Batch of 2 targets.
Target 1
Amino acid sequence: MLRRVALATSGLLVLSGAVAAVVAGQAAPPTITITVGPRSVTVAGAENLPAGPTRVEIRTNARRAQIEGALIALRPGRTADDVRRALPSSQASPVPIKRLATFEATGAPTRSRAYVTTIELRAGVTYAA
């Protein structure tokens, strides 16, 4: 199954394709690293990402501003374009995004400390962060 992991921060949305598969054995979960800055977003580790436990690391390279990151799961029938259109109206409240998706992980990292959590990714779901 084809899945997409996306990153939406400060009005930016970056898509990265990933293949969902069954996690086998007791290996350490894969890690997605999301780095957010005042004008940029990068995603690493989303290639060939299996369904199952996944470590999410949200980092920032911002020097002064505190930037919050979130990983969301799009509701059925919703698209990355829907999220892009909702971003401007979601600056004061998460309600426009909540209509489109569920929040799976959120955090406000600092330059010296990443936000780290482990979540269960589901096959066939499109994620955005």
Note: Residues 1-24 have pLDDT under 50 and may be disordered.
Target 2
Amino acid sequence: GSLVARGSINASPSANVPTYVLHAELKQFNLTPLVHVVQPEAKGGTAILDARAVLTTKGLGKAIVENLDGTLDMATYGRGVGTGRLSLLDINLLSIVGKTLEPNTQSTVNCVVGVFDLGKGLMKSRALFADTTRMRLIGNLDMDLRTRKLDGGLRPYPKNVALFTIPTPVDISGTFTEPKVSLATTALPELILRYSNPYTIFLGALVETRSSKADGSDDCRAAFAKAEFARSEMGNENSDADDAGKFP
């Protein structure tokens, strides 16, 4: 894998507070050794991360998190360890979602894609997409980096329609260390349909899962490649991207 990063820090005596700017891109970065350090009990498996970040902040200590603004797109892939986590934040969420929806079934998370905007330390997703061996999920997730609280919703789409009579959405709450997942009491949590743009339409096509494979990692890679289109109102900053990352 590779890491490309550039940044700047303005900490001159004339500045009231230091400011920070970071542009970073991770391509097929192998997180497996780090996961094994964080989870010594984990054996075998792989965890790969793709990520793009454009972040700015200012201040010292807690103020760095409280003033964090920018964008962050990430995707994790692998087997056995780390995949079900939003790896940069170490939130083991998808495994809990799977156990809530299918408590008596062993389902493996293949990949997760998240497209996030950050403002004053609050991460609000443009979209969240996940592929498991038995279902796909689409929705949204807010993560407050200041309080470490979670708020979101996901709708499952079974790869075999016989698996669920009625696919029940789930509500997400709790904290980074103690996420809570429960079956939704409404037909569709508000967060699931937060945005409508070419990107969410593209993800909607991906969850039409009649012909999807048990391992849909290729579709996660496609979703990550097209993530810039989730911010269509901001213009396509990566206009020189390969044609493979563009919509027809």
Note: The chain is about 15% helix and 40% strand.
